[in-house]
Amino acid sequence: MIQEIPTHRFTSNFIYQLPFGKGHKFGSNVSRLGNLLVGGWELSGIYTLQSGMFLTPFWTGDDPVGIYFTDSATPASVTIRPDILRNPNLSSGERSLDRWVDVPAFSAPQPGHFGTSGKGVIKGPGVNVWSAGLAKQFQFHERAALRWEMTASNFFNHPNWANPRPARTSLIPLARASSRVMAASLTDQ
Questions:
Q1: Which of 97, 120, 143 is the last residue of a domain?
Q2: What is the DSSP string of 65-120?
Q3: Residue 23 — left, alpha, or beta (φ > 0 → left; ψ -120 to 50 → alpha)?
Q4: Is the model's pLDDT at 89 over the cut of 80?
Q5: For residue range 114-155, what is the model confidence (pLDDT) as tens digits?
Q6: How far apart are CA 23 and CA 145, in angstroms?
Q7: How many domains, in total, are found in the chain?
Q8: pLDDT tens-digit series, residues 2-18
Q9: Of 45, 46, 38, residue with least CA distance to 18
Q10: In the chain, N or C: fewer CB atoms in 10 Å?
């Protein structure tokens, strides 16, 4: 299947420095040691919501049109668009991990004809991902600092499914595309 651009995509991000420590609303009078503990914290996040990709189905089999050359009596094996019999997209109540698309909505092209299916007739699963970060800036002197950072992709561990992959006569079920991934780092500034 070929993937196309989704119809809708919304992405938003933020970085928020928590108002604690020297020069901030809360704890501006703390000691130097206290500022190392409570000051310099920052929250960040990225949210992405998008509709599913448009997917184009293909059929693989003996050449129904007879335009591919072969020097044997066996017809050449080709991959072309299938015939489309009805809307292959199932309603949200009918979809499952094993049956995202109505596979019987497609058939092999008729002998002497190319397939009737259009480009991008299948709508794949959408994406809903929150990524988050927590960082701490340790300011020791004017020119000496360390930054600790913890990030999490897909923070709420929402299932986001990969597009169905085509097989010769059917579609392979959906697979989980991403799960929560966490990372930490410490860098000098």
A1: 120
A2: S--S--SSSSPPEEEE--EE-S--BPPTTT--SS-SB-GGGEEPPPTTS-----TT
A3: left
A4: yes
A5: 889 988 899 988 999 999 999 998 877 778 888 889 999 888
A6: 17
A7: 2
A8: 566 788 999 999 999 99
A9: 38
A10: C
